[in-house]
Amino acid sequence: MITEIIVLLFAPLQRFCETNWVRLGAGLAFSVAILGAQAPAGLPEGPGRATTQRICGACHSPTIVVGHNQTAEQWKDTVTNMVVRGAKGTPAELTEVTNYLTKSFPPNGAAPAAPGRAAPRPPRRFGAGPDDQQVVDAAAAERGKSLYSTDCATCHGPQARGTNNGPDLVRSVVVLHDRYGDTLGPFLKTNHPLSNDRHLPALSENQVKDLSHFLHQQMGNTLRTGPYTKVLNVLTGDAHAGAAYFNGPGGCNKCHSPTGDLAGIASKYDPATLQQRFLFPRAVGFGRRGIATTKPTNLTVTPANGAPVSGTLVHLDDFMVSVRDASGNYYSWKRTPDLKVEKQDPYAAHDELLDKYTDRDIHNVVAYLETLK
Fold first, then answer.
1. 63-86 pLDDT per residue, tens
2. pLDDT at 339 over 90
3. Where residue 25 falls among pLDDT bands split at 50, 70, 90?
4. Most buried among 74, 96, 101, 340, using CB within 10 Å?
5. How many domains does the chain fold into?
6. 2 CB-side CA count, 13 A
7. Per DSSP, what are the bridge partners of residue 199?
8. Are 326 and 311 in contact (CB under 8 A)?
9. Are residues 252 and 365 in the same domain?
10. From CA 283, how far away is CA 2, in angstroms rounded?
């Protein structure tokens, strides 16, 4: 029976290999050879290479930057994003990384390509996305933005994210496949309407390329390297109003004290993390002094015919509950109608306030907490 199942599972693969004149064994060997041939090259030699390998390699393969050619400002933004996501390094080391990346992978630094296409990038093993990804020209994107605002924004929105009158272009297959206008141009030539009752013949080839650069820039802005991932200024509230809410409607002073557990909290967390901890205290994040910790949730479980057991929550759902007591002993029960479970959640009040806060309340309280240094 097992042999029959294996045959059924592998028969389609065998037929595919035979159809393409490759037997299964030879096909696997061929695949291994191709993967080996496409292994990404290491980082080029240069000042800052070791520092880049150490800092970037702490989270991912440092060779992920190979083939990504950017300006000095773009590399600076990339490194800043790395820091926001937890990369560690002194200011001097981060500057060294930025300078190394800028010198090693400048804009349009790859080999020349065929007209109208992006320069070929080194193959990326197990990577995502096309190897001929369009390199956005900032000046062209700015020109394309002006053109887009005039002819396209009415239907597709100011950031190309779509409206009730037109689809989201960031997720458009035509735009995703486009390189320097090679698919966008032909699509628009199918009598696609523009604003003011104009059509594509009113646009030159260079204008279509500029439009392509703008749309690819908008696509990049939705990724983790885009500006939408940068931390915004959250200190926009009124600290005095925040103190009033803290001691009044919010009821925060029932559990917290600015001279007790919250003393110096603004020195411990940066404003963005402070807001995150205030709203979602269970979430672990990075502050000015490193990683934050959370308080455990405790349970008291009383079986129908047994003594109550208290301990730290390990697992709780509609079917099972388990705890670990102060001595490290593990207990688990199947949840039944006669099993009593009492939960002591230190963050229950925060959960309840999520349904009551207004945006103004949130920013006011954060502004107040930022004064507690």
1. 777 767 888 888 887 887 777 667
2. yes
3. very low
4. 101
5. 5
6. 0
7. 193
8. yes
9. yes
10. 46
Phi, psi of 22, rounded to the nearest 5 degrees: -130, 120
Instruction: Let me know how long the chain is.
Output: 373
Q: Which residue has the higher pLDDT, 258 or 136?
A: 258
Residue 57 has a pLDDT of 81
Confirm if 366 and 235 have CB atoms less than 8 A apart: yes
Q: 340 and 354 in one domain?
A: no
- Considering the domain architecture, whether residues 354 and 265 belong to the same structural domain is answered as yes
Give the containing element (helix H, strand E) for 331: strand 330-334
Distance from C-alpha of 113 to C-alpha of 123, rounded to nearest angstrom: 15
User: pTM here?
Assistant: 0.45
Range of the domain at 305: 298-345
**Which H/E stretch holds residue 322?**
strand 320-324
Residues 306 and 189 in one domain: no
Does 44 score more than 70 pLDDT?
yes
Per the DSSP assignment, residues forming a β-bridge with 322 are: 315, 332
pLDDT at 50 over 60: yes
Q: Could you tell me the CATH number of the domain that includes residue 142? A: 1.10.760.10
Identity (one letter) of the amino acid at 95? T
The answer to whether residue 363 is domain-embedded is yes
The edge-to-edge listing of strands for the beta sheet with 298-302 is 330-334, 320-324, 309-316, 298-302, 340-344
Looking at the structure, tell me whether residues 144 and 221 fall in a common domain: yes
The pLDDT of residue 7 is 44
If 0-12 CB within 10 Å is exposed, 13-18 middle and 19+ buried, where does residue 147 land? middle
For residues 246 and 365, membership in a common domain is answered with yes
